[in-house]
Amino acid sequence: MGEPDWVVDTRASYDTVAVSYGEMLKDAMDGQPVVRHLLALFAELVLGAGGGPVVDVGCGTGRVTAHLRTLGLDASGVDLSPGMIEVARHNHPGFRFEVGSMTSLDLADGSVRGILAWFSIIHVPDDAVRQAFREFRRVLRDGGVVLVGFYVGDATTLKTEGYGGHPMKVHVHRRPVERVVAWLAEAGLRTEVEVLHHVSDTATGGILIAHT
């Protein structure tokens, strides 16, 4: 059986935009104090739970992975796109980045203390997100921490270009907070923090922190 269309399209799209994506967003964190504070809270919770490996799932070019390391976390990254991973390795030499899928993580049961999925579920269909959350629970240690970022709403749109006008073909899913909370609970992850981040007039981010 071949790969689902969404996997093929997402990989190809982000391979296409990888270089421009990395260049356009390399300093984005500088102007995002709310994001920095949420990531700092995630880091504090992981360290408070005993520390250990953290995986940035859907890491892209590794900019958030690198930020997590400045917060004292042993962070590595996984992404579906080989092009994004190539840029991540180039921009952050010495850090661990691997090609992989959030729905089938190449990690042992109970092997990590934290998982970050920073707006990396936005192109993933509902059933695959639920599978990804089950994978998160499988690889997390008891007391592990998950931070999930996503777009809030209840609609799906097709994105056909981005990051400098390059062609893309990815669906962007916006979901109600309560639906994502329910999926986490279904996988055995209890949500402790819910934040709405109104990043613009047209985009609201939902940020959830959950525990095993």
Based on the model shown, name its key terms.
single chain; 212 residues; alpha/beta; Rossmann fold; 9-stranded mixed β-sheet; 9 strands; 33% strand
What can you see in these coordinates?
The chain is of the alpha/beta class and 212 residues long. The protein has one domain (5-211): Vaccinia Virus protein VP39 (Rossmann fold, 3-Layer(aba) Sandwich), CATH 3.40.50.150. The protein contains six helices and nine strands. It has helices at residues 5-25, 33-48, 63-70, 82-91, 126-139, 177-186, and strands at 53-57, 74-79, 97-99, 112-118, 140-152, 155-162, 166-175, 190-198, 204-211. Strands 1, 2, 3, 4, 5, 6, 7, 8 and 9 form a nine-stranded mixed sheet that branches. Helix 1 (5-25) packs parallel to helix 4 (82-91). The longest helix is centred in the N-terminal third of the chain and has 21 residues, at 5-25. The N and C termini lie far apart (33 Å). The model has no long low-confidence stretch (mean pLDDT 96).
Q: Element order, helices and strands?
A: HHEHEHEEHEEEHEE
**Mean pLDDT, rounded to whole units?**
96
Count of helical regions? 6
- Annotation, overall tally of beta strands: 9
Shape: globular
Which structural class fits the helix and strand makeup?
A: alpha/beta
Distance between the termini: 33 Å
Per CATH, the architecture is: 3-Layer(aba) Sandwich
CATH class: Alpha Beta
Q: Helix coverage percent of residues?
A: 25-40%
CATH superfamily: Vaccinia Virus protein VP39
